[in-house]
Amino acid sequence: MRKTLLMLSTSLLLANAAYASSELTVYTAIEAEDLKKYAARFNEEHPDIKINWVRDSTGVITAKLLAEKDNPQADVVWGLAATSLMLLANDGLLQPYKPAGYDKLSEKFRDNSAEPSWTGMDAWMAAICVNTEEAKKYNLPMPTSWADLTNPVYKGHVVMPNPASSGTGFLDVSSWLQLFGEDKGWAFMDGLHQNISTYTHSGSKPCKMAASGEAPIGISFAFRGAKEKAKGAPLELVFPKEGLGWDMEATAIVKGSKHMDAAKTLVDWTVSKKANELYNEGYAVVAMPGVAQPVQYFPSNAEQLMINNDFGWAAKNRDVILTEWSKRYDGKSEAK
Amino acid sequence: MNDSLTLRQPKPTTAKPTTARPAAAARQRPLRQHLSRDEIILRGAMLIGALALLIALVMPLYSLLSKSVQNKDGAFVGLTNFARYANSPSLYNSLSHSLTMALVCTLIVTSLAFMAAYALSRSCMPLKRSFRVILALPILAPSLLPAISLVYLFGNQGVLKSWLLGDSIYGPIGIVIASCFWVLPHAMMIMLTALSHTDARLYESARVLGSSPWRIFFTVTLPSAKYGIISTAFVVFTLVITDFGVPKVIGGQYDMLATDIYKQVIGQQNFEMGAAVSVILLFPAVLAFVVDRWLQRKQAALITARSVPLQPQPRRWTDRTLLLGMLLLSITIVGVIGMAIYASLVKYWPYNLSLGFSNYQFDLMDGGGWGAYWNSLRMALYTALFGTGFIFFQAYLQEKLRGFGWLKHLFQMMALLPLAVPGMVLGLAYIFFFNHPANPLNGLYGTLAILVICTIAHFYTVCHLTAVTALKQIDPEFEAVSASLKVPQYLTFWRVTLPVCLPAVLDIAAYLFVNAMTTVSAVVFLYSYKTMLASVSVLNMDDAGDIAPAAAMAVLIMLTCMAARLLHWLLSKGLLQRSQRWRSPA
User: Fold this and answer.
1) CATH of region A125-245+310-335
2) What is the ipTM of this complex?
3) Which candidate, A205, B74, B137, B502, has a CA 20 to 30 Å from the CA of B276?
4) Residue A59: its chain B contacts at CB < 8 A?
5) What is the pLDDT of residues B147-185, one digit of tens each?
6) Rounded to 5 degrees, what are φ and ψ at B80?
7) Is B544 on the interface with A (CB under 8 A)?
8) CA B325, CA B362: separation in Å to the nearest integer?
9) Residue ranges of domains in chain A
């Protein structure tokens, strides 16, 4: 018996998670390059649970979860926009669960309902990616605020995500409306529209386009900009002084999971200090207070720049905002 | 072997009156004799085939489309979703954009495909084999490859940006170029089949009667290729109008119907509106289908038991002009692909242009790595194997089985439907249908099998049209003669039809394999952690910002497809030499 156990543990060591006693199907929108790292950190403490990732963009994963509503395939969602999880919670797709250590998280990162169905991990915030080489070429001044971007000098040099296709795009639009108020917000976007060369379908694309010089200025999010900069792109990340729209990555258990115990173990771990340290490797603002260390290329006052984002308001008014946005800016591209 | 010999040498005894109207002759026989045993079996096979298509295609689509008249809670709301979309400013724009793009591409691609197919099958220009290979290249690569390449070529940092005279590649120009690029091989496949079957006796008669080359072209060549041209135009139009990959990547804000579906489903998770837009998108495609049917109702068989294959004669100026055209086309294609390969080797475009293979180390990136690649390979092999068998046999029954008219009509409709269905719509439909708890087939969900079924269904139409085009060119006399010789129909199928159509069969297999390797839009909703695919990992790596590794994986997929093509070519050389000798002069 002992021999078998020994052999078993040896093979466990050898094959790492291959002999795990239970497996979890985890849906995620975390950057593909980070998935192995996330699973490995979790397995350091829980080698008996194997994570099988299904990764795609936020939109696809959310659509997939909604489409699979009647017969859920996922056990856990780890790393999806909180706004998407709120949508899923409203449709009753998530299993309410209060993970151990829930109360240690900042209030901002909690569901704050009696039976919480999701927990925040980290915040990703809007940022402007400016390609310094291209800016020099076209003689563009460095913007410091959102308002700067309406300056006619930037005409045809700015890209941003289309809010109808991209969560990041909607985040931008809804944060401007909260930041400036309805009237001034739309006036700002009218001005910005004059300078936009392309609305993209993906939220990270504007920054990638700026990184490769396809567009001098891309309205995107900070995490992507920092990654591109680390790879050697001539980028400057601008964090507009008026404030930054933000959303969080969050975790939840899918209702109907057949591995509820393992799912709870995983979700408990995702709010732990160790997990927060892991998130901090890419994100400057994480759910557990006091954990975050400065992250390269992020401003030290990142957390203060984050606006007081009213996710409930944004979700409720989404249809109205998008209809108004399409009315104003759709199909006008050729006229420019 | 003997069969092919008898094919080539018409028996003087096959007197015309008895064989010219086999159907009429058959109709006169009493009914009991009419339904022989093998006919009953074949009819059963056709029924099963129709049922399979019903399950793999019609029912999933129905479950999705029924959503278009429901609200979020599943209650019936009539046409509310359509009314909302019609009132939004995007409908008019998207509809006119979609139609414009589809028509422009149809015009360009059909002309190019005809020119190329004509040059390859009817001229004596040199380098034919190389051109054939080059023209098939675009289909071997995932659609992301030309898109990346176009950005590198004509984007704001592009090497050839000045060629656009200040216009942006992000928009209609990009959509037209990229669409034409990926659709061309699809069009070529039908066009080549149409042009490579012809009866030399027609040309001989025309020449003997003193017709000018132009007159021959307009009175013999064009009419005999009519079916192929119409089918090509139909296929191109629908492929372009239903595609969302190209407009998504390079369309900028030039909205099209397919991107509207993307916005609704992926951007806003509004399945009901997405379904409503899908229904609107189906209209132009269905219209194209109706026009196609109406135009080609009468397609006469081109190869009769007495026909003689055409051997092209050298024509100096025609050959030279065609050669020039083919050279330009080939250089364009090679340029686009070459640029993507180059981009996959560059370390950090455009600021660090040193070359290396670092982007090819997939196991260092995530996104599936080599596991995804092997999954793709298995999926593509199964798709080619089962898909070709099913599609060709069903097309054969469709064309050569007597009677059963209503089922044939139904089957034909179902076979043409997939072309009008965007992959994304099909993928979602599969989730709704196959993952329903009440569906006895829901065990399929998340397996490789569902990916295979979905891919076969997704690419059904072009394969079906190819098979039908090839089959239509075989005179029904063969069946009639076999029947009168009391040879069971399946033996005729095995000994005559299949060998004669072998080029088309191999084409279908290669087409399915290649598309299974490169497809993204439908399977992106259906893969599970066990069945990650290489093409999806290209998308994911691109999404994560790893564009160069994405390009590298795309290049790897392309190389695999090239290897498959090489195999296809070797098979063609070996097998076809045996079965197709009758096409060349003795």
Assistant:
1) 3.40.190.10
2) 0.73
3) A205
4) 265-267, 269
5) 778 878 887 777 787 787 777 788 888 899 989 998 898
6) -55, -45
7) yes
8) 39
9) 2-123+247-301, 125-245+310-335
